[in-house]
Amino acid sequence: MSSFRVKGGLKLKGEITPQGAKNEALQILCAVLLTDDLVTIHNIPNIRDANKLIELLADMGVKVNKIGPDSFTFQADDVNLKYLETPDFLKKASALRGSVMILGPLLARFGTGRLSKPGGDKIGRRRLDTHFFGFQKLGAKFEYDAAQEIYKIDGQNLKGAYMLLDEASVTGTANIVMAASMIEGKTTIYNAACEPYLQQLCDMLNRMGAKITGIGSNLLHIEGVKSLSGTDHRLLPDMIEIGSFIGLAAMTQSEITIKNAQIDRLGIIPDTFRRMGIKLEFRGDDIHIPAQDLYEIETFIDGSILNISDAIWPGFTPDLLSIVLVVATQAKGTVLVHQKMFESRLFFVDKLIDMGAQIILCDPHRATVIGLERKNRLRGIRMTSPDIRAGVSLLIAALSAEGTSIIDNIEQIDRGYQYIDQRLNALGADIVRLD
Ligand SMILES: CC(=O)N[C@H]1[C@@H](OP(=O)(O)OP(=O)(O)OC[C@H]2O[C@@H](n3ccc(=O)[nH]c3=O)[C@H](O)[C@@H]2O)O[C@H](CO)[C@@H](O)[C@@H]1O
Ligand SMILES: C=C(OP(=O)(O)O)C(=O)O
């Protein structure tokens, strides 16, 4: 288990370029299984989850070649389906959440798929029902071996169908879209997730020869095709990393410019930080955050306390609520953070309270933060990172705190933020990795 030693209280300054998007990478990497042609992907972040998925694909027989610092080619022309039965596959697949999206491509292309319970953050119940409901609608047979925790999915001659998803699951929609793109007939998915990463996946599949319309909406139409061909794809900048850097700049009173942020794909994220009183300036496609002594959280029009909650896209992503929460600890004003999707994502506030923050955890889903207005600094402490986004929030808290903090279990942070210590140190932070 590795740790970060973080010296607090330093102001950062400079430019930072966001990495390629983690959650897009996981969808796009799985899509390489849909064709025996060459697929080239650029801007792949060097993070644990992407690397583990690339390794898994290689173990399945996909030919993987690194052709640039963040560019890879993939060719799935000789997939070893027998490998799916091995304990090695089941162990590796369960190490990350994104591996679940190999099922759709495997089903469409080979009529079969196997997976052990996928990993990812322990941030509450993370059911997969929507994925299997969708596959079943297409005619697949689903079996869950509870003793071994293995999901089995089989189905030759699948046929397109109409389906109304029980929830707009992000990875579920990606999985069903990939399965439906290469089977007979027309599939309609209503209540589909529609976030930018899914739009990117659908655009990529269309470039490969798929026929998907309704992209960007919650009603997708997919006309199945017989085969898909190779393509070239570039991942978007990671919007969660961008939000994290906005929060970091505000908390540490730093002047930071986030380069090439693809602002048009960030949805409601910039305005949500603006509601917290953080000044953001768009300079072309860069986001400039000036050093701010104090930021004041808005109230609602009637004067009542601001409530920031997550919602499916185009609502505010749940992955940035932990950042919002930590940023609020030094603001002027009060905010109610309501994490509707996940029931275990707010427990990390006890660490912020130990650091001196004023937070009332109302219940597992809601926390009220009363900003300290910088009258008191947070204090550096030793703490453990429970999940990827709480981990980065604790890192932001530690960077703004008085004294030194140790953050343990930083493998969680490494899951989704590439070279975060080196990149922030280049802006003037003092973070030491202790192995
Ligand atoms: C690898 C990946 O891409 N992970 C992301 C993906 O996870 P993932 O695809 O696993 O998340 P889902 O969209 O399936 O659902 C997330 C949670 O929200 C609940 N839910 C979902 C939809 C809905 O309409 N109502 C509802 O309550 C689900 O029951 C579940 O507990 O999307 C999540 C929601 O944006 C993000 O937090 C994850 O970072
Ligand atoms: C929860 C997240 O990731 P995963 O779905 O991979 O656990 C996240 O990226 O915030």
From TrEMBL:
The active site is at residue 121. The keyword Transferase applies. Signal peptide: none annotated. Its EC number is 2.5.1.7. InterPro entries: Enolpyruvate_Tfrase_dom, Enolpyruvate_Tfrase_sf, MurA_subfamily, RNA3'P_cycl/enolpyr_Trfase_a/b, UDP_GlcNAc_COvinyl_MurA. Cell wall formation. Adds enolpyruvyl to UDP-N-acetylglucosamine. This is UDP-N-acetylglucosamine 1-carboxyvinyltransferase. One of its GO terms (biological process) is peptidoglycan biosynthetic process. UDP-N-acetyl-alpha-D-glucosamine binds at residues 97, 319, 341. Pathway: Cell wall biogenesis; peptidoglycan biosynthesis. It is an enzyme of class 2 (transferase). The keyword tRNA processing does not apply.
